[in-house]
Design goal:
single chain; 246 residues; alpha+beta; Glutaredoxin; 11 helices; 5 strands; 10% strand
């Protein structure tokens, strides 16, 4: 609705330009509307150009708003002590991933994340942010997020995270089976999954995500002060290389 109103306003300006040579005092509302209509019918490309320009300005505004939000929320994004991370806290590159265990694009990016961790153990710190936005009716995204955070309490977050990312379909039984293969105490895991503190951490991540305009889905990566929305690993590699060289 907001965009529709803005477009109408833009077209009104165009219409006024079309009848600028007429005497406004001699024109009725219907006269103006007819001139605007005739102008747009004769020049339909104007509408397309106006919409393209509107999209460009909206995209630029969203980009800047997101950059500002990341700067404002840096402590919550990069330094939340509850988050699991791999790599030195003072690493040259701070890489944050917001993800959902049911997200196919997140799964596609997993090999890149693992390779980055292995290739740059001293220069890159990866922070993992559970963002279960695809919960739907079955609740498996939240369940998997709770399982990963519960596994962290037994020192097995990394193994649990990448194991669940490697699964095509997740359910509670499969998650517990994975936990058993890792030597986790599954009874303790299930107790920890019910801890309200874990639910608060997930809720805080979801609230945090809502404050970053460009974060409209998963995966969402932040590399120092820049970001990539989606599994664009070519862009991620470009940003990572630039950050390492900078």
């Amino acid at each position: 609705m907001i965009r529709l109103l803005r477009t109408a306003a833009a077209l009104s300006v165009l219409g006024l330009a079309a009848c600028a040579q007429a005497d406004p005092g001699q024109m009725s509302k219907s006269d103006v509307e007819e001139i605007v209509r005739a102008y747009l019918l004769e020049n339909p490309e104007v509408i397309r150009e106006a919409l393209i320009e509107l999209d460009r300005k909206d995209s630029q505004a969203e980009l800047q708003d997101s950059v500002d939000a990341i700067a404002e929320l840096s402590d919550q994004i990069f330094r939340d002590p509850r988050d699991y991370s791999i790599g030195p806290k003072d690493a040259k590159v701070q890489l944050v991933e917001f993800f959902d265990y049911n997200c196919g694009f997140c799964k596609r990016s997993t090999d890149w994340v693992e390779a980055t961790i292995e290739k740059h153990p001293d220069d890159v710190r990866v922070v993992f942010k559970e963002l279960p936005v695809l919960t739907g009716r079955d609740g498996t995204s939240h369940m998997a997020a709770r399982a990963a955070l519960a596994a962290a309490r037994q020192g097995k977050y990394r193994q649990m995270h990448f194991a669940m990312m490697g699964e095509r379909a997740l359910n509670r039984k499969r998650v517990l089976d994975l936990a058993k293969t890792m030597g986790l105490d599954t009874e303790q895991l299930e107790r920890d999954m019910k801890d309200p503190a874990i639910d608060r951490q997930i809720a805080d991540n979801l609230a945090l995500g809502q404050r970053i305009p460009a974060l409209t889905g998963t995966p969402f990566f932040i590399v120092n002060d820049e970001f990539v929305s989606g599994a664009d690993m070519a862009k991620m590699t470009e940003l990572l290389d630039a950050a390492l060289e900078g």
